[in-house]
Amino acid sequence: MPDVAGQVSRALRAVPPDQLAEAADRAIRVALNATRTEVLIADYRFSGLCPLLDPELPDAGLLAGQGVAQRCFSSQQPVLDGGEDGRCRVYLPLSVWGERLGVLLVELPASPAAATVEVARDIAGDLAVALRAADRETDRYRRARRRERLSMAAEMQWELLPGRSFTHGAFLLAGQLEPAYTVGGDHFDWSVDGDRLSVTVLNGTGSGLAASLLTAVTVNAMRNARRSGGSLVEQAELASDTVFYQHRGSRHVATLLFELDTRRGRIRAVDAGSPHVLRLRGGTVTPVPLEQQLPLGMFAETRYDVQEFALEPGDRLFVVSDGVYAAQPDGQEPYGERAMARAMRSTRLQPGTEAVGTVLRELHAYHADADLRDDAVVVCLDWRGASQPDDACEQ
């Protein structure tokens, strides 16, 4: 078979960033003799898949979160769907280093050979990389993701995110913000560098634009320290001093910072406030005991201490903000008393990318599907086991 994937990749590089879907459509039709293609982009809530080429596509099975496309997106595996007319629709995950962007649909005149499916999967991988790179140069793909208008605060929060999932030889990491279209201050950030994974989860103070601005200052202060080679303590202390000298103690940010050593499976953490850490091990959910220190920005020149704990292969960690564990709708007991642990236990057979959605869906159900009263963030870390020096990131 000729270099079909290479032909499509070259076609993607030759067009403006807002024309990737059309370029892929033309190239795939020629290269694979396809009768139709569609690029489906995951919405902000991961509740559906939004079509780029045919925005008028009926909602049934795609935007309602059902059907073959959603199964492909959830499993991150190709799914073949044969029709009565003999044609075969091949659904392929669009993902980059584990970050799930959407699904590529390729309709072929007949059921394809395994080699053709692999070629189509390579094409989907190239398209995903191109979409992620193009996202900074055009609004088209972000516009397609939204089912309603974002608040100004939410626009800033989504711009600040590193992504919503990441896959590595030693771990899988995923996170989600709610309410997706109006989130204010809660946030998460992560970065991988060699054998170190750095993660921060912020429980923002206040609401709306003021909360988003405070979170942006805090996140960028920690990034500044981290990118300058600063330790966890230096990240926390720079962010704390930055917030304090901006607000003189009237505003502060509860934050959890941790680093995972992927060679040894050990976590070093600075607990500066209220985000909670829970561990799912063997079907049992238990809190990870960490000594809470002062939130960032409460006092000048606050000093922080590092705590450590070990992971075992198969451990799943959840980090949640108080909008999750302290949620108490209509006089019920807080979600974190019992319902949250039940939701976490129910995820044990799901990948972490699905687990965050399960916990948040159960939180919405606990609110009787009413709007959440507070921002909520859930981050999930699946520890697979210590990586070897030559472990490579998976795509």
Automatic annotation (TrEMBL):
SUPFAM superfamilies: PP2C-like (SSF81606). Coiled coil: none annotated. InterPro entries: Bact_Sigma-Reg, PPM-type-like_dom_sf, PPM-type_phosphatase-like_dom. One of its GO terms (molecular function) is phosphatase activity. Keywords: Hydrolase. Pfam families: SpoIIE. Residues 168-383 form the PPM-type phosphatase domain. This is Serine phosphatase RsbU, regulator of sigma subunit. It comes from Micromonospora rhizosphaerae. The lineage of its organism: Bacteria, Bacillati, Actinomycetota, Actinomycetes, Micromonosporales.
